[in-house]
Amino acid sequence: MAVLQVSDLYARYSAKGPDILKGISFDVEGDDFFAIIGPSGAGKSTLIRCINRLVTPTSGRIVFDGQEMTALSGKDLRRARRDIGMIFQEFNLINRMSVMDNVLSGRLGYTGNLRTLFRAFPRDDIDHALRLLDRVGLSDHVDKRADELSGGQRQRVGIARALMQNPKLMLLDEPTSALDPKISREIMGLVKTMAQELNVPCLCNIHDVKLAMEFCNKIIGLQDGVTMFSGPTEQMNEATLDEIYAMEVL
Amino acid sequence: MTASSDTASFGLSTETVLVTRRRKRLVSAIVTTVLLALVVWSVDVTVVKDTDWERIGSVGNVLEATNRFIGIDVDLFPTLLGPAIETLLIACLGTFLGVIICIPAAWFGAMNITPFKPITYPLARLMMTLSRSVHEIVWALFFVAVMGLGAMPGVFAIAVRSVGFIAKMSAEAIEDIDHGPVEAIRAVGGGPFQVFFYAVLPQVLPQIIGVVIFEWEINIRRSAILGLVGAGGLGLVFFRQMNTFNYHGVTTVILAILIIILLGEAISHAIRRRMI
């Protein structure tokens, strides 16, 4: 069964504003590395933010892990978000905190307010964080402040933070846009390896079509909030790409 | 665009430029004249007509009156220590109490986190404006009238007067945060407290601490004069020396105030530099 089923999703930012998403449907299976491609303004970020309800869709269904995400609010929504890891374009780390504290913040969904206040995370969490930091290659930077790291290193912290949640799904919002091509490929490779190792499906917004073709097994192509293509990567061809990115050429 | 003649490439002709320059000169001449007339008029009304020239007498008399203040009353030293410490304490406690009042004021007054915009936001803005638009002496008069003489009305006056600046700066800092970390903490399933404590507070804390220390330094200045209206500290001693025409005593108190203010400035500077 699919981990995530999105059907007929519509979203807009204000009551009278234009629809950003116009009837998007797709399923993410347990071992998918799913790419969302399309030009700027196509609605990729809105789509990915609807999944964990950072943006509330206007209509449509999002079934994640057997629950209807659009119906959740308050505590139930926070509980559901704990199972969805997210990696951001601008990393979104807490700059003034250490790498360790940033990775541990992935556990905040499981942490009470009093523990939060004293940053008193259980031993298991510390242990888990150290292992993850080792896996993403940041063992030497545990106590550094997040803003002392390079872009690629910061995104590795972001990956460790997301994996800290033991997620059942990973959302990646343009994870490589702020990085140079070489580091981009490294980061994508790292996410893919970790995702396969931990059996986590990924849903990834990505600008760079070449990276999408290289790392992802399924692709959905958006243009102006409408699905232009949806299918396995092998079926994607030059003609379809030209069509998806037609607006950019103009 | 045609580039046939060599003058056509300039958009403006010499004549147009000259005319606009002449007009600008005329306008600035008129503005200057009006401003000068205003200055002359205000000096006439406030200084020439409003001063008791008989009482001032000659230049010699003024110098003589000034001369009375030169000198220090050593006998006053032991009695200054208590009020000096009291002045410092009023500033510290007042700033502390002010910070506590600022927590709801900054929370309500930051557009992006205010709990119920139509009511809480204007309420916070009202608190800030009220705090700043009333002078500390007036606040002290009010609290002395309510609580009686002593240091406590001074503490309250300082606290209430501090809210405007600290809360306004804090609210603005909160409004200017990078929204990314907020999104990240919400995405891991964090609640409102966790979002505030992880994503908001670390971003604004250094700025707020800087503002509070700056305000504390200003509050030392403020608490030094609050005694004038009976709210404790060095101001009270100053007032007494003035009333008993002990001019050397007045100078002594002024020096004491100066020393305390310099001390406060040095401490504030040192802390802020270490932080940044």
How many helices of chain A? The count is 10
Shape of chain B: flat
Could you spell the SSE succession of chain A in H and E letters? EEEHEEHEHHHHEHEHEEHH
Rg estimate of chain B, integer Å: 28 Å
SS-based class of chain B: mainly alpha
Number of strands of chain B: 0
Largest sheet of chain A: 6 strands, mixed
Rg of chain A, rounded, reads: 18 Å
| Principal-axes shape call of chain A | globular
CATH architecture of chain B: Orthogonal Bundle
Main sheet of chain A: which strands, in order across? Answer: 6-7-8-3-9-10
Percent of residues in beta strands of chain B:
under 5%
At the first level of CATH, the class of the domain at 1-77 and 205-250 in chain A is: Alpha Beta
Broad CATH class of chain B: Mainly Alpha
Report on the structure:
- The complex is a heterodimer of chains A (250) and B (276).
- Chain A has helices at residues 44-51, 74-81, 99-104, 113-118, 123-135, 151-164, 181-198, 209-215, 238-244, 246-249; strands at 4-11, 21-28, 33-37, 59-64, 67-68, 84-87, 169-173, 202-205, 218-223, 226-232.
- Chain A has 250 residues and is an alpha/beta fold.
- Chain A has a domain at 1-77 and 205-250: 3-Layer(aba) Sandwich (Rossmann fold).
- Chain A has a six-stranded mixed β-sheet, with helices on both faces. Chain A has a four-stranded antiparallel β-sheet with strand order 2-1-4-5.
- In chain A, helix 5 crosses helix 6 (151-164) and helix 6 runs parallel beside helix 7.
- The mean pLDDT of chain A is 91.
- Chain B is an all-alpha fold.
- Chain B has a single domain, classed as MetI-like (MetI-like fold), CATH 1.10.3720.10.
- In chain B, 79% of the residues lie in helices and 0% in strands.
- In chain B, helix 4 runs parallel beside helix 7, helix 4 (77-109) runs antiparallel to helix 9 and helix 4 packs across helix 11.
- The chains are: A alpha/beta (250), B mainly alpha (276).
- The A-B interface holds A 52, 54, 78-82, 84-86, 88, 90-97, 105-111, 113, 116-117, 161, 165, 171 and B 180-181, 183-191, 193-194, 197-199, 202-203, 205-206.
